[in-house]
Every structure is written in C-alpha cells, then in structure tokens.
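FIELD: query
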Amino acid sequence: MPIRPGLPVNLGPAVNSPYDEISPFLARDGRTLYFSSNRTESMGGLDVFKTVFEEGKKAWQPATNMGTPVNSPGNDESFRFAEDGRTAFMASDRLDSYGERDLYIVYMKEAAPEQQYDAASMLFAVTDKVEPAAEAAEQRQFSIPAILYDNDRDLLSPDNQKILDSVAVIGRNFPTPVILVTVHTDETGPAKFDLYYGIKRAEIVGKALVDRGISSSRIVLRSAGPGYPLAKNVLDAAPNPVGARLNRRAEISFVLPADALPFSFRLERPAVSELMAAPGMKYFDGLGAGLSYRVEVATTRQILTNDALSMFDDMMIESQPGSGSYRYTAGWFAQHDKAVQLRKDLVQQGFAEATVVAFLNGLRISKAEAVGLLKKFPDLTAYIRG
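FIELD: result
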C-alpha cells in the first residue's frame, strides 16, 4: 500500500528568506540541515548554509554561512556529505571550473559529528498533540565518559575525540544548557602549577568543542588542580601511579543554574577500588550541587604565584574559551556568612579585590541574576545586599 505524504510545512524565517533556498541535505543525525541560498549574507551567488534543529524548542537555529573555503564568489550548491562525514561533494561555477557547474570534493579536517549518528526519532511530524514529543525529549538519556590523559596530546586522542564529538552533538541539539569542562590533576609539584596547567588543558578541550560548533559563551572552563582526588596519589607511603592516572581527568557535564535539564545526563568516572578511593570527589560533587559560595581572589591573564594562596587546598580557576582571563577562587561554602569571613581574611592578607561569588550547580550567578532567583533561594538575600 503506497505511503501518503503529508502536506509540506514551511521551515520558517530562521531557514528561509525572501531569496532562493535550494538543494537541502539533512545529515544522519536528523537535525543538521545544509542548503544553498543567494540571500544577502552570501559571498557571491548561491552559498552553502547550515542550520540545526533545537529539539528542546522544536525550532531551527538561524542559518549560518559555511564561509570559505566551501563557499566562493560564484554559485555553490548541492552540498552533500559522504557516509563517513570526512568528505563532502558539491557543485560550483567558481573561477577554476571547466564550464558552468563543476563537481568538487571537500575534505574535512575532522569527521562531521552530525554524520556519525543516525536520527534517534522523527522530529518534524505535524501534530495537534505536542505533549508526547516533549515527554520523549525529556526521557532522552546521555552518558559521557571522563576524558583521561597522561599529557596534553592525550586530551585529543582518537578515543577522546569521539567523546568530544558526542558532547558536541548533544550541545547542538540542546542549545540551552551550559557545558562545564572541569580538569583534575594529580600532584606533580606545587599546587599553583598543577592548577594552572589544569586550566590550560581545559582550554584545549574548550577549543575542540568550539571547533565542533559550540558557542564559546556556552562553555565554562574550570581547573580544580589536585584538590579533589578521585583516587589516592600515595598508597601505603609509596607513590600510587594507578591513582595518579585516575586523577588526571577532564570531566564534561551539562548544567542549568536553576532549572532541570531537558534530558537525563550521567557523567561516567572510572571505577576505583575501595582501598584506593579518596573522598575528594564526593566532597566536590556535594558542594557543587545547589547553591554555594566561593571567594574570588583575583583575576589575571597569567599564573598567580602569590605564596599566601598555598594555605588553600580548594583553589580553583575559571575561564572561557578564547578569553585568556583566569579567575582564581578559594573556599567553598553552603552559607554566605562563612564566605564573607574568608573574604575578610583575604583582604587582610593583601587581596583587596577579593569578593564573594554565588554559584548554582557550579555556575556563577551575578547579583542581578540572583534577584530573579530569590523566591527559590531565599539565602541569596545576603549575597544581593553584599
């Protein structure tokens, strides 16, 4: 029995324009659409554009120009990925073509993540009942392993590249949550160096996600240094290389400051035996959930070497991809008044700019944002008053 097609549905102004939109290609993930258009943002005639369907909002992102070298001052159309996602084919009448439209092959630096996964479900059916679709989105489950490393090169090993591809796919499909990248280190020397090397490694991971289409504004980078070990670095008074290896990790999670995620997410950490387990990560996870306070000691563009900071074993650095700015914080408190006391101590030690910062689920919130959250978190009153 023949299948009856549904009526065509316009994809709306985020995709379409008053000009021509032609040669659509939907990637294997069922959410990433390529097409050509001669709209005003094009470089020449027809340019290849890309848009991603936001599953949470049930809407398309505004289309973006693929730029050079895919596009040219000529007409570029019929862009199609090969099955492996590493090569694409297209037609163009650019200057080096033999006649009118010639066929070209495009070699990608990395496999396109959207071509690595088959669509999980039908997204674009028209229906009067939207609740089942929303419920299905909420029930989606994702699990991301921790990224283990021995050196900086290991962060982008083939196995870790696959993890980053998966994170990017989730991030593009659900554009609301913040992506939190936290690097933990083992103890290799003075904590100030481990802490700094940790944020530099977080920057490598952050750049890899930006290169995969995640906006840098959605990514928060953190270095916890050696302060919160998963495993013991020393066992029976001797160095424990297995524990040190487990402590060298980059962990990626999806976070919303005050709302539930639109999907179920689990971070996979390596298993640790009872004999080798250290309590640091339980403490870290407990304080990172819900409302907490830290004291921002200083903001700098280089390593902070002040010896007065050596008394803190809970120092952290925060940054964002491409910013080059490092925010050093100390302490971690459930009560605002304890953070205020630490701030006073730091001011007496010469850190005149020290200030209390509030965090929700590991994400810092400004005082302006805190005002809108007062009903849910009354303890923010003291933070707002300062």
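FIELD: remark
The longest strand covers residues 291-300.
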